[in-house]
């Protein structure tokens, strides 16, 4: 039987809800002494997980102290008390956290300019519930495995509102790839792509976190898929996930190749790079083509965050082809999120979706292990080295630990 704990730390009054009471039991239990114990555990300085191992009193997390797109300049590691989950929250012991191109937009304060440092970094994690509030215990219990898309993931422990977390069958990094990267591709193509069988789709940064999913979903829709990337190894990977025409732009001239091989243009572009690649993609649109702006990574490291764009002729080009440019930002499509995740998880379970993870095994200093390797992992992405989703193993299991 599990012990669900809501403990103010270090000697505050504590509630311990004993036994596996869930759902309405857990919610009503506060008033029903006949059905559950509420034990004063104020002597305890620790949360306890269901295996009885202790949660340390302090942990490490990454904090943005200064606004800058230079992640190393903006962010530092801090030791802080392990936070206490609120009534509707989970305390998650992070096992894997995901790196996103926008981690440096976030550290530069571009998401919400009203938020001033210090603030926590990291968008997504997956791990084990080790503590939770009473209301949260209606849906979760200690020991559950969950993934979440929310702020403050670059930490050893993160408090996550239970309603923003997703139960996952196991703590596998593959599930982490779906939270932001997979969901972005799934929802953007579904809502804005208007894909029809036989159409041609161009995916930029195709071998990366979100690009790999765009390639696969476009293939599943019966399209011919072109994917850009920067190495032959990535081109080989793209072939393996069904991309019809990987283009390594380091060895092939992208503009010439598109003009020569696709003279009628491409119907849809899933565009993540921006700047000159955006311009090239606009020039490559077919009549009634749709370009989805997913990002513009080529500008993120600059002071403005925006890559230079000529763009003055954009209205002419769009009009002449009845083409359109459509922006997509995942938080605006949260109503599609659960369906997207459920559907992708099913595809993965059936072996119909590749969720490629790059844990840094081939990185210069080796695998991304421990919170401190988030810095290396961000550099690695911006060096264009990653193949698949960049994931950091925050807390690899010790020899003595059991299931993770
Ligand atoms: N709109 C949304 O809601 C949303 C959500 C998630 C992600 N995104 C966007 O999706 C894009 C990809 O993000 P991700 O997290 O999945 O990253 P990723 O694709 O896993 O990694 C970035 C890739 O972009 C290319 N790249 C890196 N630095 C570059 C630079 N300076 N100039 C040009 N290309 C560069 C590299 O691929 P190659 O070397 O192979 O070209 C690199 O592997 C980003 O633009 C991001 O902002 C948007």
From TrEMBL:
One of its GO terms (cellular component) is mitochondrion. It comes from the Eukaryota. GO terms for molecular function: 15-oxoprostaglandin 13-reductase [NAD(P)+] activity; zinc ion binding. CDD domains: Mgc45594_like. Keywords: Oxidoreductase. Gene3D superfamilies: Medium-chain alcohol dehydrogenases, catalytic domain, NAD(P)-binding Rossmann-like Domain. InterPro entries: ADH-like_C (IPR013149), ADH-like_N (IPR013154), ER (IPR020843), GroES-like_sf (IPR011032), NAD(P)-bd_dom_sf (IPR036291), Quin_OxRdtase/zeta-crystal_CS (IPR002364), Zn-ADH-like_protein (IPR051397). Its EC number is 1.3.1.48. The keyword Oxidoreductase applies. The keyword Oxidoreductase applies. Residues 70-392 form the Enoyl reductase (ER) domain. Pfam families: ADH_N, ADH_zinc_N. PANTHER family: PROSTAGLANDIN REDUCTASE 3 (PTHR43677:SF3), SHORT-CHAIN DEHYDROGENASE/REDUCTASE (PTHR43677). Belongs to the zinc-containing alcohol dehydrogenase family. Quinone oxidoreductase subfamily. This is 15-oxoprostaglandin 13-reductase. It comes from Sparus aurata (Gilthead sea bream). The lineage of its organism: Eukaryota, Metazoa, Chordata, Craniata, Vertebrata. The gene is PTGR3.
